[in-house]
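Whiteboard transcription, Tuesday session. T.W. wrote the structure tokens on the left side:
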């Protein structure tokens, strides 16, 4: 479990269990669960020479670019999965609730259909956890806290703008 998100230990264990189950089913080189901005939530790496932080950011960029393509061709529902094939490795990207990305890097020798099937099952399980996480955080962030934060933000922005006007 890594990343910038604050998860309860219960949710973190559930996520790690799903990632571990997927790992056992498909023999990947790497699995990355990240939020849509590219912050790593959980990973599995078969070989430690993979920079998952950079990969997560690139996966998020890829999802964003593909979303823009969907928009340009008027695909109103967007694309939930992306498959990239290379000489030695393939990458399967899947959106989880429009807020998260599950990326699987796997050898060309693995069956694409099996990777797709088991990744889809993992995503379905992760949707439930993502909903639970979002519910927990919405309960923590009540209107009063948000109003306080937005008031402080407005004050800081005003201060910065006044300073730049004086210069």
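and on the right, the sequence the group agreed on:
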């Amino acid at each position: 479990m890594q990343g910038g998100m604050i998860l309860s230990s219960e949710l973190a264990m559930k996520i790690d269990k799903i990632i571990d189950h997927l790992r056992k089913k498909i023999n990947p080189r790497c699995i990355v669960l990240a939020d849509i901005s590219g912050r790593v939530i959980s990973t599995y790496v078969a070989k430690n020479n993979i920079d998952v932080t950079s990969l997560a950011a690139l996966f998020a960029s890829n999802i964003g670019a593909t979303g823009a393509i969907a928009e340009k061709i008027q695909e109103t529902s967007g694309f939930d999965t992306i498959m990239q094939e290379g000489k030695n490795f393939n990458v399967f990207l899947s959106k989880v609730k429009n807020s998260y990305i599950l990326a699987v890097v796997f050898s060309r020798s693995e069956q694409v259909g099996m990777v797709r099937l088991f990744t889809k099952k993992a995503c379905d399980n992760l949707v439930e956890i993502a909903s639970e996480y979002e519910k927990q955080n919405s309960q923590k962030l009540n209107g009063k806290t948000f109003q306080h934060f937005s008031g402080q933000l407005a004050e800081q922005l005003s201060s910065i703008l006044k300073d730049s006007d004086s210069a």
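Someone added at the bottom: The chain has a mean pLDDT of 84.
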